[in-house]
Write a structure and sequence with these properties.
20% strand; alpha+beta; four-stranded antiparallel beta sheet; 561 residues
């Protein structure tokens, strides 16, 4: 990215994308299958030496299920997965679909409770590999103590050398790591002894510790980088066995896992992108669990015990937005973009495309986030106001034939695009819908900026610095729309330099106000999440990760009777 409002990815930006998507031919295919779930309301801790206090959970975040005496071990869970897994390199992959699959293979350094508080407790929803940490008062030095007797799936023992290798690898621009920016202020990663690692910062970066709870910063064995795209190796409850991309993949229980579980012998992923086929498959017994119940069937399936199914719902799973190419006419004009926003009936989209399983939003920060700007609300459809803004802009509405590129990977996006096409026609905009396969959408829209209108959804952005830095800063790794605002960049930079959460909150809220006014994108909705499982599957309340997107099967078990 450049700062002159021209979408011209640098070699590093392009290399990052090509490695993350696999379009460069290295490490298999991946996709930016939406990247983000959960609220972003954690505090920057200074000491977690007892697993509680500021940095710990202190209770309330434990992942407990049935009485341990009731748990039965063994069996294979067959999972009907809604999307195709892509590049299996945990540091490079930009796809939520791959994150769901790899979440049971890897552990990050910092643990996370279901309430999105950082923790050293091994029993939280997403346990970490650090038993404690200390952060200097100036946020310049982070000292981590590792769990002992943790074994990687290749049989080697976890040491501080592995943490240093992992973080140095992510920080290296040649890696194409999706979370490289986390280490943008890191001066060095030093090994103090086998179980102590020290991270020294060149400047204060307030969100640093929280971002070490993301799976994208997971710890891998030293020297393993070249193999991770094809053979993932972590410390998680399951180890990778095989994958036939677009068809099936297998994980097997890791007997030397350091934590509780796993209880299953294996997890078999079956790629089932067609929603109706997933639902039919679990109803007929082909699958034990599916994620993403078809939207038009949710109301009839959820809570219906007659189908021998258990269901779980949560909100939000993801957020979606209308993308406008800010670098090309007519969307390089803020008035034209805002006029488009006034054309759209967001509630009608939720009802028509999501069958009511979601809600409109004006901010991508989730409803329970302390960083959310609750003063913002979705613009109501107002064709008179849209006409005024079109007239105020530098472009005539009827001089453009716009193409709306939408991926069939998300059928509800096609439905939403069809509804928006009708809204735009009422406002005098001529818009043609072009349906693309997911790989074509990634190449054309995300990689090359070859679009005028599009839409996509994102998952797992529970932490505000990751969200607001990567999505809308001038050089953000996910700013494929080419938005550039010095005022916005400064607000986000100031938030990252804040001394603590309370100072950062109003800065992130200011950043939301800026993009709400500039309308680089139109925020559309939060979508609800669902999964269904056969009655014999237990521990479902432990399966959903704190970020509301990834799945973990370490404490799921099957009734063998």
């Amino acid at each position: 990215m450049t700062n002159d409002n021209q979408f011209d990815p640098t070699d590093v930006d392009r290399r990052r994308f090509l490695k993350a998507t696999g379009l460069a031919g290295a490490g298999g295919m991946t996709a930016m299958a939406g990247c983000a779930g959960g609220g972003d309301d954690t505090e920057e801790p200074t000491d977690a030496s007892d697993g509680g206090g500021d940095g710990g959970d202190g209770g309330g975040g434990e992942t407990t299920t049935e009485d341990p005496g009731e748990i039965q071990e063994g069996g294979t869970l067959v999972w009907g997965h809604s999307e195709v897994t892509q590049n299996l390199d945990i540091h490079q992959t930009a796809t939520a679909s791959t994150g769901r699959f790899l979440n049971s293979v890897y552990d990050p350094l910092v643990g996370l409770t279901r309430e999105l508080e950082l923790s050293t407790d091994p029993d939280v929803a997403s346990p970490g590999l650090a038993t404690d940490w200390e952060v200097s008062d100036d946020l310049m030095t982070y000292t981590f103590t590792l769990r002992e007797d943790v074994t990687f799936h290749d049989g080697t023992e976890l040491t501080a050398e592995d943490v240093k290798y992992s973080y140095d690898r992510i920080a290296d621009s040649e890696t194409g790591a999706i979370m490289q920016f986390v280490f943008g202020s890191t001066d060095s990663v030093e090994v103090e002894d086998d179980y102590t690692v020290v991270v020294n910062q060149s400047e204060r970066y307030q969100p640093f510790l929280r971002q070490l709870a993301f799976t994208g910063t997971s710890i891998v064995p030293a020297g393993s980088g070249d193999q991770l795209g094809d053979e993932p190796v972590g410390t998680g409850p399951f180890q990778f066995v095989m994958r036939q991309q677009g068809n099936r993949a297998e994980l097997e229980a890791f007997d030397d896992y350091w934590g509780e579980g796993p209880y299953l012998d294996a997890v078999e992923e079956r790629t089932v992108t067609d929603p109706d086929s997933r639902l039919t498959g679990i109803q007929e017994g082909s699958y034990d669990l599916i994620n993403d119940i078809p939207l038009d069937d949710i109301n009839s399936v959820v809570g219906n015990d007659s189908d021998d199914l258990k269901t779980r719902t949560w909100s939000p799973l993801s957020w979606a937005f209308l993308n406008m190419n800010n670098t090309e006419p007519p969307f390089d004009d803020p008035d034209f973009r805002k006029a488009v926003d006034f054309c759209i009936d967001k509630q009608a989209l939720v009802e028509g495309a999501l069958f009511g399983n979601g809600e409109p939003t004006a901010s991508p920060s989730f409803p329970n986030s302390a960083f959310r700007n609750n003063d913002l609300s979705p613009r109501e459809q107002d064709f008179d106001r849209a006409a005024e803004l079109f007239e105020q802009s530098q472009y005539d509405v009827d001089e453009f034939d716009l193409t709306f590129k939408v991926t069939t990977n998300y059928p509800w996006h096609v439905d939403a695009a069809t509804l928006m096409q009708q809204f735009f026609q009422q406002a005098g905009l001529n818009v043609e819908i072009q349906q693309l396969q997911w790989s074509d959408w990634l190449s054309q829209v995300f990689a090359n900026g070859d679009f005028t209108l599009s839409m996509v959804n994102f998952f797992t952005f529970w932490e505000p610095a990751y969200l607001y830095t990567s999505m809308w800063t001038s050089d953000g790794s996910f700013n494929f729309r080419g938005y550039a605002s010095d005022e916005y960049d400064q607000a986000v930079a100031d938030a990252a330099q804040a001394s603590g959460r309370e100072e950062a909150i109003p800065l992130y809220q200011e950043a939301q106000s800026i993009i709400h006014e500039d309308v680089p994108d139109v925020m559309l909705w939060f979508r609800d999440g669902t999964l269904a499982a056969k009655d014999r599957v237990n521990g479902l309340d432990t399966a959903l990760s704190p970020n509301n997107s990834e799945l973990g099967f370490g404490r799921v078990w099957i009734d063998q009777e």
